[in-house]
Write a structure and sequence with these properties.
alpha+beta, Thrombin, subunit H, six-stranded antiparallel beta barrel, 2 helices, 36% strand, globular
Length: 144
Amino acid sequence: MAKAQDRRKQTVAPGSIPERRSGTDRRQSERALVDWTVDYRAKDTFLFAYISDISAMGIFVRTPQPEPPGTRLNLRFAPPGGTLLELEGQVTWVNPPRAGDDSHRQTGMGVQFVDLTAPQREQLLRLVRTFAYLDDDEEARGHS
């Protein structure tokens, strides 16, 4: 707990480069690995793709043609056997396709949820916690 408090108190001097955190340290909220379909609309274009992870803050959408950062999206997706979610999002970062990509790097876009209502935020939190718990349960049984 002291480490977390120290991290929050850390200040960066003007002109210096802040320490970059990596991996899960950069994440502000818990995420769950998933493989769900998502329909999304950007302006007048309707597309179909896959979500590979979800948090209360956003999703990663696997797609060979990611939208540019700043693009607003209308998202529609549901967990298996779950309730359909219709949310707004904005592309915040992109993994563009590159020549010679290895099979472990996913092409797509990070999408942050925007303009969520309180009930939508609560539904997302319950959803992420449920699927994160299921992922942990699978790992504990030795399945990845």
